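Recall the central idea of this unit: under ordinary conditions, the amino acid sequence of a chain determines the structure it adopts. In this exercise we apply that idea directly, starting from the sequence alone.
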Amino acid sequence: MKKFSLIISLVVIAASVTLAQEIDRKSKAILDDLSSKIKAYNTYSIEFSYKMENKVDNIEETYTGTILMKKEKYRIEFAEQIIICDGETVWTYLSDANEVQISNAEATGEGLSVSPHNIFSLYEEGHRSKYIREGTFNNTTVHVIELIPLESQVYHKVRLNIEKETNKLLSVVVFDREQTTFTYELIRQQPNLVIPDNKFNFRTENYPGIEIIDLR
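Accordingly, the structure predicted from this sequence is:
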């Protein structure tokens, strides 16, 4: 975020379609359960770590951050940025430039939108989910599921590690087409905290000399 063949033969496809359907049903059942739990919470708080890595160019960046979610509203803080949405408007504040960009919530991006809600429902539209395997993540048994975009995006897949016992999302890894990976590890998750609505509004008067870029 500092600023994210197919057909070998008809015979092979015909032989494997039943297995593929079983895999897809398994991944969808897991993701349905995860998504329904998140949607049922009034609020959700996440502390996360972020790592951007490109081994070809020898680039690595790491940050920590927080996410607050309250239905359609959210607040993200990390890497000298604050992103706030009240459900209609998105404010992206860059502290090092004392600048805020204002946009409509439905026009914040394509593919992987900045909204944290989308990662819990990404599989529902525009992606094919695939159950890869049962594995381990930080000594925890997890379901490894990949989401593949149905149309060309700047990324080519998203990998989810979901705790087997609780069906809680533990990490998200985004693979882009420039051989860069973006890893988000969800360190701490707390549902139904009391979060005041003023956390989801941005007051420009609190930032003297701020530059306002209105993209609406």
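The chain has one helix and twelve strands.
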